[in-house]
Structures are given as structure tokens and as C-alpha cells.
Design brief:
Layout: H1 23-36, E1 41-44, H2 49-55, E2 69-73, H3 76-89, E3 94-100, E4 103-109, E5 122-125
Parallel strand pairs: 3-5
Antiparallel strand pairs: 1-2, 2-4, 3-4
Helix pairs in contact: 1-3
């Protein structure tokens, strides 16, 4: 990857776990970063099923456990650019937006129909 180090996708306190990320997803994240023209800070990448169950309502089988999801810390005009570019790329099928208070991030995933509950592509807010 040109713009990320695999360790940026590690689960908190689990060094090397970013290696569980889907390679195609990482390539698309690198392309997104280039298109945006500014750094993207990953706040959450790969998660073990147990950790995901602790921190997310998606339980043991959430998008992050597949290696095809991450959250990037971004707000205001940069959030707009990330959202625009991610949608134009067409490879991110799940986009969650949190842009209020101290929680400002965008969730991106590339799960396909059948890999998750609900329709794909989809967009939601937190």
C-alpha cells in the first residue's frame, strides 16, 4: 500500500491483526486515500468476533470481523469528500456516517449481499 501501513488496521491491543484484512479492500482504501488528497486516519479496522461483540451491536459477525470494513476519523468538508469519492468508486457497499458531537467518523465496508443482513448497497447514520 502506498498510503497506509497494515498496522493501522490492527485491532486495538492486538498487534499484527491487520494482516486479517481483505487485500482487495485495502487496495480500494489506498485508492480512496489518493482520490481524497488528504490522510485518512483509521480508528477501527479488523476486529476479532469477541472484541466486535463487546464494542458493536453487530455482535460476533459484524463487518469488521470479515476484514472488509474500517472506520476513518473524518469530519466536516473532509467527510463530504470521503463520502463523495467512496460512492463514486462503487466498491464500498456499506457506508455509515457519524458526524455529531465528539464521534465523527465514516464507516466503509465492501460486504456483498448474503455476507450481511439487509440490502446492499446501503447507507446509514449513527
Amino acid at each position: 500500500m502506498e498510503y497506509f501501513d497494515i498496522s493501522e488496521f490492527d485491532q486495538k491491543d492486538l498487534q499484527g491483526s491487520g494482516e486479517n484484512m481483505c487485500k482487495e479492500f485495502l487496495v480500494n482504501m489506498d485508492i480512496l486515500r489518493k482520490r481524497c488528497g488528504f490522510p485518512l486516519r483509521v480508528s477501527s479496522g479488523w476486529r476479532s468476533p469477541e472484541y466486535n461483540n463487546e464494542v458493536s451491536s453487530t455482535g460476533f459477525n459484524g463487518p469488521h470481523t470479515t476484514g472488509k470494513a474500517c472506520d476513518v476519523l473524518v469530519s466536516r468538508w473532509q467527510a463530504y469528500i470521503v463520502l463523495r469519492e467512496a460512492m463514486l468508486m462503487g466498491c464500498f457497499t456499506g457506508i455509515g456516517i457519524a458526524q455529531k458531537g465528539d464521534s465523527r467518523f465514516i464507516h466503509l465496508d465492501s460486504l456483498q449481499k448474503g455476507e450481511t443482513k439487509g440490502p446492499r448497497p446501503t447507507l446509514w447514520s449513527y
